[in-house]
C-alpha cells in the first residue's frame, strides 16, 4: 500500500529524519510504502514499511524504491529519441523475463516521478541512475546505443588535463 503525505505529518507517523528533511524541499512529499499482498510482496514481508521522497528526481540516489521511476524516465527519453527501451532491456538481459511495464504501472510511476526534458545531462543521469539500481548491463547497452545515434559524445581516449 502506498500513501502520500506532506512532510509535516510524516514525522508523527514514524518517518525517518533523513526522509523527513529531504521532503521539506518545495514540491516534495513523503511516500510511505507498506509491503502487502496487493503490492506483490511475499507474505513474510507484509507489514514492513519503507519511506521515501517523491517525486523522484534524477540523481536522487537509490533507496530501494526507485526502479519504476528510473525505468519510466528511460522509456520516455528513449521514446523521444525514436527507439524502444523495452527492446534494449531485453537485449541486456536475454535470460530474464521480457521487460514488462504496463500502462497502469506507468501511470502510477508518473505520479511519483519528475520526467526531465531530453538533454545530454538527462541521458547521462539516466545512465548513472541505472547503475544505482544495479542495471549495469542495461546501462552498457543503452550507452552504446546513445553513442551510436549521436545522442551522447564518444568517450575520449585521452583524459582532459
What does this structure look like?
With 161 residues, the chain is mostly helical. A three-stranded antiparallel β-sheet has the order 1-2-3. α4 crosses α7 and α6 (120-132) packs antiparallel against α7 (136-148). The chain folds into two domains: 2-54, no CATH class; 67-148, no CATH class. The radius of gyration is 17 Å and the shape is globular. Helices cover 43% and strands 10% of the residues.
Main sheet: strand order: 1-2-3
Number of domains: 2
Distance between the termini: 51 Å
Alpha-beta classification: mainly alpha
The Rg value, from CA coordinates, equals 17 Å
Q: What value does the average pLDDT take?
A: 93
Residues in β-strands, percent: 5-15%
Query: Low-confidence stretches at least 5 residues in length (pLDDT < 50)?
Result: none
Number of helices: 7
Q: Could you give a short account of the major beta sheet?
A: 3 strands, antiparallel
Tags for this entry?
single chain; 161 residues; mainly alpha; three-stranded antiparallel sheet; 7 helices; 3 strands; globular
